[in-house]
Amino acid sequence: MQVTIITFGQIAELFCGKITLENVHDTDSLQQRLVEQYPALVNIKYAIAVDKKLVSGNVAISETSSIALLPPFSGG
Amino acid sequence: MQVTIITFGQIAELFCGKITLENVHDTDSLQQRLVEQYPALVNIKYAIAVDKKLVSGNVAISETSSIALLPPFSGG
Amino acid sequence: MTDKKHKNIFVQGAVSSAFIADSIQKHSTKTTIGAHSIFLGQVRSDIINNRKVVAIDYTTYEELALEKMHEIREGIFAKYPLTCMHIYHSLGIVVAGEMCLFVFTSAVHRKEAIDACEEVVELIKKELPIWGKEIFEDDTHQWKENKL
Amino acid sequence: MTDKKHKNIFVQGAVSSAFIADSIQKHSTKTTIGAHSIFLGQVRSDIINNRKVVAIDYTTYEELALEKMHEIREGIFAKYPLTCMHIYHSLGIVVAGEMCLFVFTSAVHRKEAIDACEEVVELIKKELPIWGKEIFEDDTHQWKENKL
Questions:
Q1: Contact call for A9 and D131, based on CB within 8 A
Q2: Does C21 sit within 8 Å of D20, measured CB to CB?
């Protein structure tokens, strides 16, 4: 299964926008693929949002999931 | 010794401005005279300022002292 | 004691929103500031024994108030690393809905600005010799007393 | 989840002092209000490794931010008896000295307004997906990270 990931802040800058990954079924496998394909991410803290909700723990991902990588916030 | 006392807020309203008292040498005798001559003051809380400083305890008063009666504050 | 000239905090009548905007705007040149905290006191039209407050008439013992305010200011600047602090309090009539107190603290970081502002507001209410006469719509009045 | 339309908090560019004045002025008809607390975030021209910040460029994940802000708002209104609360955050370029955040709480008494304002500021910094890119005078940049 292929998923598309939207990115923000320094992660968006690093990858020039969207990332596409194969063989992703949950957030654990997502993180595994990211480490393999985007080693630069190792040095960046980020949170994962699925369907506009921040996730903690492992969460299932479907083809229609909206997935986002969020580097540390700096609003205000 | 005669002293003149300036008043504020509801105390000023009650006495139409300044009060003059005889035989006052310190803040204790001041309060004694006030109770005798202005019984309406019994129902009002107030602080005493001598020479633009709030006093606590008994403080000497001279003819040149500037004395003020201050009802509870309500600024802000 | 009053040899030194203290900064005046009193303004005649209400503190206007234009005045507040102007005070804020003036800080745009101070680019070390990261946070401003502002407190505004607004006159409420409370209903007290079926009478509605339409305005508060403020008076003060100005010499004592400015001396006290000077002490408060020194204490706050000693305690918090503020870039600046501005305080304005109304005298005379302020109608319900208008502003009677404007406290404005600025600092590099938010914590100092926020804490200093709150502390100054408490000290102003507690320690400044200012009296508010609440005027009702039927022209009667009562003297306000701060809850501390 | 985003069926319900959430109040927008984002404004393009800086929050102006005129805008703040206008917001304050609008409350003069709400005569049950006795206290307003305002927090303003201002862009600092920090010096970082000998480079001076001239502006911050803000971006957000808007759908998530507005959903989160909605939750924060509900939580604050459940916790504090506020009359009203207004929040504005900049997107895009805000130059040093300009305002990027405006939090405005109003209540009958000061304690609620002050406490709610402080809490909202903390939650905004911690929980809203907003990113600030600090732009230096030599056109290089770095990504800001909030200290919590």
A1: yes
A2: yes
Q: Is residue C120 part of a domain?
A: yes
Distance CA C47, CA D54 (A): 51
What chains are in contact with A, requiring at least 3 Cβ pairs below 8 Å?
Answer: D
Determine, yes or no, domain membership for D2: no
Mean pLDDT of B38-45: 88
3-state secondary structure of C12: strand
pLDDT at position C128 over 90? yes
Q: CB B73 to CB C59 under 8 A?
A: no
D116: containing domain: 10-140
Instruction: Determine the residue of chain D that is closest to A45 in CA distance.
Output: D145
What's the whole-number mean pLDDT along residues C76-102? 98
What's A72's DSSP letter? P
Which chain D residues are closer than 8 Å to C116 by Cβ?
Answer: none
Interface of D with C in 60-119 (CB under 8 A): 96-99, 106, 108, 110, 113-114, 117-118
Tens of pLDDT, residues D115-135: 999 999 999 999 999 999 999
ipTM metric = 0.94
Share of chain D above pLDDT 70, in %: 97
- 């600047």: which residue's tokens? C77
Residues of C with CB below 8 A from B9's CB? Answer: 59, 131, 133, 143
The tokens for D59 are 């971006």
Radius of gyration of chain D (CA): 16
Res. C1 pLDDT band, cuts 50 70 90: very low
CB contact under 8 A, D146 and A72: yes
| D96 to chain C: closest CA residue | C31
Q: How far apart are the first and last CA of chain A?
A: 38
Q: Assess if residue A39 is contained within a domain.
A: yes
Q: What is the CATH number of the domain that holds B57?
A: 3.10.20.30
Compute the distance between CA of residue D136 and CA of residue D100 in angstroms, rounded to an integer.
17
Contacts of C39 in chain D (CB under 8 A): 35-38, 110, 113-114
pLDDT at C123 over 60: yes
HEC per residue, C32-61: CCCEEEEEEEECCCCEECCEEEEEEEEEEC
**Token pair for residue D74?**
């509900």
